[in-house]
Structure formats: C-alpha cells, structure tokens
Amino acid sequence: MGADLEFFFDPVCPWAWITSRWVVDVAEQREYEVDWRFISLWILNENTTKEWYTPQYRAGHYLGHQGLRIGDAIRLGESDTSSVGHWYTTVGTALHVGAQREQARADSLAWYGALLETAGFDASYLDAADDESHDQHIRSDTELALSRAGNDVGTPILTFHPGIETESSFFGPVISKAPTGVEALELWDAVEKLATMSGMAELKRSNRLAPDFT
Predict the structure, then answer these.
(1) Cβ pair 14, 171 in contact under 8 A
(2) 3-state secondary structure of 6
(3) What distance in Å separates the CA atoms of residue 145 and residue 44, rounded to the nearest whole number?
(4) Cα–Cα distance, 106 to 98 (Å, whole number)
(5) Any idea what DSSP says for residue 3?
(6) C-alpha torsion angle, residues 106, 109, 114, 118 (rounded to 10)
C-alpha cells in the first residue's frame, strides 16, 4: 500500500516547515505514511532576474538545495523509507526552531556535517552537498510537483492519495503555527476535503502573521 500523502519540501522555507509539523502530528495520530519529496527553490528561481532576488537570497536557496542533495543521497542509501523525513526534521529543527540560519550560511558544509552526526547518519552523505549528480532527481521531483499544482506556486506542495483515482495536489496550506491534537485532525479533514473536491482550484487570503516555530 502506498503513502497517504506526498509532501514536497525545501528545507529553508519556514512556511513549509510549519506545515510539515502539522502533517507529522496528524501522521502520528492516524498512523499515516508520508512520502517526503523534494522541491528546490534554487531550481524554481534559477531564471529569476527581479531586483528582490539578491545574491544573498540566491545563496540562501542554494543552502536549501545542498540539504536536498544530501536528502537524495539518504533516499538512495537508506533502506528505511522514513529516513528523508528524519533528515528534514533534523535540518528544519536546527534552521528554524534553533534559528541557526547565520551559522548555516557561514559554513554550510560544517553545519550539515554536524547535523548528519546529530541525526545518526553516515558522515559520507556530506559529499552529496555539492554533487550535481543528485540534481536530476531533485529537478524531476520539482517538475512533478509543479505539474500537479501549477507553475505559479512555491512550497510546500501536498498530494493527497497519491497514485489512486482520488489523487489531488495543491500548494499549502500556509499556516503561521502548526496545530496539534484534535485541532490538527480537524484542519487535515477540512483541507483534504477541499483538496479532493471536483473542480476545487483555489482558496486564498493574504498572510497576516509571522511564522511561529514553537
């Protein structure tokens, strides 16, 4: 039996991180299986020339792309299908909850090396950080996610019921704080219902709150 949800993430996106914690809470409560897949903001913006996309912004996206390359090496090297999710949790906890963005940018290889050790992964996975051979799979995942949800979206992209007749994908939900317990299940049921309704395309309002990682 396949996964209940496919979650396409870039580890540097704070909104994807918050949504992922909601998904983890629901998955634990309902014993759902989540397939953690890749979408690279570095790839999505490779042709962006707008003024807001500064070299520093681009470098931040490359930091995330390095994390995805390591994640792809873990996908290939580990027999446990939850290993990519474990890696994402390790990176996201350090980057967002631990507010280690500056340390990560200062020396990404040392930072990722320390996280691999903390998470119990083989240190050799660090070699993937600048290994372009992983980009083919990451690009393929990125293109798949966009083919499902549209080209004018970001992260995260979720696919409910992947591989079966009721499969449906969308960008989001973008939430400022991850709900837990009963509230998490209520949000899941509501979002799943909307995502799988025939003809449902978009529901949106401007974000009003800063991300809350607590």
Answers:
(1) no
(2) strand
(3) 11
(4) 15
(5) -
(6) 120
What's the full length of the chain, in residues? Answer: 214
The pTM of the full predicted model, rounded to 2 decimals, is 0.93
What gap in Å lies between CA 77 and CA 157, rounded to an integer? 25
SS3 content of the chain, % helix, strand, coil (to 5): 55, 10, 35
* Nearest residue to 130 via CA among 69, 43, 74: 69
CA distance 32 to 27: 4
- The Cα 66–Cα 134 span in angstroms is 10
Where does 2-149 show beta strands of DSSP type E? Answer: 5-9, 34-38
- Lowest model confidence (mean pLDDT) among 33-42, 57-66, 84-93, 202-211: 202-211
Cα dihedral angle (97, 98, 104, 109), rounded to 10 degrees? Answer: -100
Residue with tokens 């995942």: 141
Place of tokens 């320390």: 114
- From the centroid of its chain, how far is CA 114? 20
Residues 6+ apart with CB under 8 A from 80: none
Q: What separation in angstroms does the CA of 80 have from each of 17, 103, 187?
A: 22, 30, 29
| Helix (H) or strand (E) run with residue 145 in it | helix 135-149
Backbone angles phi, psi at 54, to 5 degrees: -75, 165
Reading the block at residue 92, the tokens are: 């996201």
Residue 167: the pLDDT is: 87
- For the beta carbon of residue 37, count every other beta carbon within 10 angstroms: 25
